């Protein structure tokens, strides 16, 4: 049996509460990041700032050095942003790389119990810690831009006007986050009510319990006012339909223990 790659357990990433829901395997953690349209990136703006900063960004797990690696192998996290943004400037000025924390959640269901204290979500979440550095090599930068574009809609890169021109390349900055460690947390199943409530007929006969599945739905593509392509390309319409079906199946599967 082949052992799955795992992130090392350290003080900052060890799951303590409901630790049976925790995972350190690379595959499930990377999938949450790649399936989340937005990731949240936190960092310290400066020693003088009272609060940490946190930004919603587009991020993707990938390996430039080993592009054919599977999702459960070591990856970097690539982040896309404007060249003069504060995060990009701090990363550029940091010799060892800017320490960042990246998080992403996916909610699969509303878990409704007999008592408010036992309500929950079915969810998948991931947190990564690592060091962010600018991608300097042009080939890697273009490759990373392709990965990020195709995260939005698969195969979008080659079906758009590429490569980026000089203005686009200079105004865009890609950060490569070398991941030091990470963890995931997954909750699935039905409500878990306590015996003291389950034994009360007045409660069980009057309070509905169960799971409301939650999943991201993609609607019919709406052409832009300037669009001159008559038919919606199949790679767009197929993705919208298939992703919705897949998301729904994931949410329904999460109801099962």
UniProtKB/TrEMBL annotation:
InterPro entries: Pyridox_Oxase-rel (IPR024747), Split_barrel_FMN-bd (IPR012349). Pfam families: Pyridox_ox_2. This is Flavin-nucleotide-binding protein.
